[in-house]
Design goal:
7 helices; alpha+beta; Cyclophilin; 2 domains; 35% helix
Length: 282
């Protein structure tokens, strides 16, 4: 059984939230499907070929537009974290002086999230859109240009089981919060009447409904995800929060070299690593 504060506290918290309202991969790569596009990234450390998914059309079309206009030519890999990911796409990074903090630049627009999950997830080699945090971006809209390539790490079956348990707990919390908001007027009326018995009865009813809904469609990792995360690795904690719109199909050895670069306290490589040019291969 998951635990909650009183239903009164839950409705207040939910209301506030509404108001306030990231080895070889050959065995895990996806075959090219209709609508997919291939892009070559020629970097200062070697070539990386990526496949853009046709079922994330907004991100695909935007990426192709930026490539065709030379937007990415000269941008740096400005954020590199070993066993996590390498990030690039900030236009202000071009010719940026050593030590300058980067990562705030974009084309002054955002892209609506396209979560094709669990089909597309954060396995090693996944190409995903960076974005601002949930506190200022509750809709999880993507940056217009910044993206990252996942390196990640592998996980044991026990670790994946623990992740599933946490995901289910979060799923239940989300379901419960949604039910609280649906019953907000009733809850507020019962609070005004100081009818604690009725509040407790309603809370028990919502908890039972939450358990039933979560049991009907548990938010757990698929077998495909478990296989990927236990063999080639990835960053499963980012699943469902950042749009995955492609993957590396060759050149992960280059990505691995980039992730091993020595960095400053802001995770920027001490020696610049750049995308020299990008080209759509189709």
């Amino acid at each position: 059984m998951f635990s909650f504060k009183s239903i009164s506290a839950a409705v207040i918290a939910a209301t506030a939230l509404v108001a306030g309202s990231y080895n070889s991969i050959s065995a895990m790569t996806t075959d090219k499907e209709k609508g997919d596009v291939i892009v070559d990234l020629n970097t200062s450390m070697g070539n990386i070929r990526v496949l853009l998914y046709g079922d994330t059309p907004r991100h695909l079309e935007n990426f192709v537009k930026l490539v065709d206009t030379g937007y990415y030519d000269g941008v740096l890999f400005h954020r590199v974290i070993n066993d996590f990911m390498v990030q690039t796409g900030d236009p202000t990074s071009k010719n940026a002086p050593k030590g300058k903090m980067l990562g705030m630049g974009d084309p002054d627009y955002k892209i609506e999230a396209e979560f094709v999950y669990p089909k597309h997830f954060h396995k090693r080699g996944a190409l995903a859109a960076a974005r601002e945090g949930d506190s200022v971006n509750p809709e999880k809209k993507s940056s217009g240009s910044q993206f990252y390539i996942v390196t990640g790490k592998t996980f044991t079956e026990g670790q994946l089981d623990q992740m599933d348990a946490r995901r289910i707990q979060q799923q239940k919390q989300n379901i419960f919060n949604a039910l609280v908001m649906e019953n907000r007027d009733t809850i507020m009326a019962l609070r005004r009447d100081k009818n604690q018995a009725a509040l407790q009865q309603l809370q028990d009813k919502l908890i039972a409904a939450t358990d039933s809904a979560a049991a009907a469609a548990p938010d757990t990792l698929t077998e495909t995800q478990r296989q990927a995360y236990s063999t080639v690795g990835g960053t499963p904690h980012l699943d469902g929060s950042y749009t995955v719109f492609g993957e590396v199909i060759s050149g992960m050895d280059v990505v691995d070299k980039i992730q091993k670069a020595e960095t400053d306290p802001n995770d920027r490589p001490l020696d610049d690593i750049s995308i020299i040019s990008a080209k759509v291969v189709r």
